[in-house]
Amino acid sequence: MTKSILLVEDDENDVFFFTRALTKLGIESPLHVASDGQQALDYLEGHEGYSNRNEFPFPSLVLLDLKLPHVKGLDVLKRVRELTERSVVVVILSSSKDPTDIAEAYRLGANAYLSKPGNFEGLVELVRAINDFWLKHNLTKAEKS
Amino acid sequence: MESHLNLLLVDDQRENLIALESLLAHSDYRLTSVTSAREALIALLKEEFALIVLDVEMPEMNGIELARAIKERRKTRDVPIIFLSAHHDAEGDILCGYGAGAVDYVTKPLNPAILQSKVAVFADLYRKNRALKIANSALESEIAERKVVEAALQEANQLKSERTAELHEMIQELESFSYSIAHDMRAPLRAMQGFAHIIRTEHASQLDPQGSEYLRRIDCAATRLDRLIQDVLSYTKVLRASAPMVTVDLDRLARDIVATYPNWQPPHVEVCIEGELPNVMGNEAFLTQCLSNLVDNAVKFQARGNRARVRIWAEPVESEVRVWVEDNGIGIAPENHGRIFGLYEQINAPGEYEGTGVGLAIVRKAVERMNGQFGFESALGQGSKFWLQLKTEDSR
Hints:
The structure holds two protein chains of two kinds. The N and C termini of chain A lie close together (12 Å). Chain A has helices at 12-25, 37-45, 73-82, 99-107, 120-137, and strands spanning 5-8, 31-34, 61-64, 89-94, 112-115. The longest helix of chain A is centred in the C-terminal third of the chain and has 18 residues, at 120-137. Chain A has one domain (5-137): Response regulator (Rossmann fold). By secondary structure, chain A is of the alpha/beta class. Chain A has a five-stranded parallel sheet. Chain B is α/β, with parallel strands linked by helices. Chain B folds into three domains: 5-110, Rossmann fold (3-Layer(aba) Sandwich), CATH 3.40.50; 164-236, Helix Hairpins; 242-395, Histidine kinase-like ATPase, C-terminal domain (Heat Shock Protein 90), CATH 3.30.565.10. Chain B has helices spanning 14-23, 37-46, 63-72, 88-96, 112-202, 209-240, 250-260, 284-300, 359-369; strands at residues 5-10, 29-34, 51-55, 81-85, 103-107, 246-249, 269-273, 279-282, 308-317, 320-327, 373-378, 384-390. In chain B, helix 5 (112-202) runs antiparallel to helix 6 (209-240), helix 7 packs across helix 8 (284-300) and helix 8 (284-300) packs antiparallel against helix 9. Chain B starts with a strand and ends in a 6-residue tail after the last strand. Classes of the chains: A alpha/beta, B alpha/beta. Chains A and B meet through helix 1 and helix 5 of A and helix 5 of B.
């Protein structure tokens, strides 16, 4: 099964660079984008137009921005952790280095907290690391290998 | 005119009254003479008296009965009475019931000197009482005035603390507002830098040299703005962050910081920590800001082609520790010594040295928040020596 990524990001430039970094690294995991917190929840819960899991597979990895319109990133995280039937890796990808944000994210069950790099080279490095660790090597309890 | 004392003379014998009047004729006294208890009571209703001289033996209501009536009335209760008594022994007991000071007696036949001196004693007592009352009422009105002032003061204080709380809230809102603005500005900047990078790496063949130069300038400007925003964020963080004071292993911290920066390594630059730096009381995040900003300045402000040499060492100053960062850079002219700690202050011509003018302001604020001191020695062309003075565990 190919592992897919759900990127929850409202900044279209950041989405663009992320996509580009994937392309540049030759990572072929399907990428789906939710541009706000509500959309992310709809996607994860299979609501409104996301019910077809062939087209919108449940992701192996959620990359979650914190500053999002409508439903904030931390609220998305909280809700995701309440959905007990599927476990999913949630990695925070935020420009905030605020200690309270970081502490709150881990308290709510984030698997990792990554700071958005300031430039494209940095982003490429980070995406490579994310891919290697979370998609290649990391095992989650939903899958038995 | 208030010095006149009203004396009430009561005797049913007119000739006795005349004798009393002549005995007590004195410019201080204003005498009112009545011949019966009834008249006496009427007089007491009309006026205030300092003293009553009262014959015991009178028809209808005698002196003792009259005295009882006087003492029962609240308004006249405290008016002293001198009884004129024919039978000393018999009436002495009755008189005792009135209590000391309020009542006295003089036996008949009258001894003028004794009566005069007793009246004088009561008159004096009355005067003193009156003066005391005046003083008391003055004091009371002063107290009342003070209470009014105190209440006003309290109100003003209340208002002041309300205002202060409002201001604090406003400052906090502003700080968090500027923090989030600064933060949000970084996202579009990342986009500018990112797209400039893509054009430079993937579309370079379609650009003429001038186009490439403009692109480079966009990139530089974006990088500079990003650095400025990061510095402002660091500055507000130093302002806002809670900073518990703990013992910090300064030696380990300084060596870690120096090792982290690729630009501070030989052969271009030599950063040397001399001896072992002691433990200090401080905040690790703040100390990191201080040391990295100071060393960064020391490395940056160098004459073209000069190899930066930076020395860091510590010395005890009384019970505290002074940490020095010395460079061989361009130094600071005396006329600029007062400016360098200001936010956004840049001494050198724009573009000559990269920077945002926030670094030393951060250091100053961080040191201030660690209850330390901060200073420097420098002269143009002779390098600079910056120092931080921090408390140690022994300082308190």
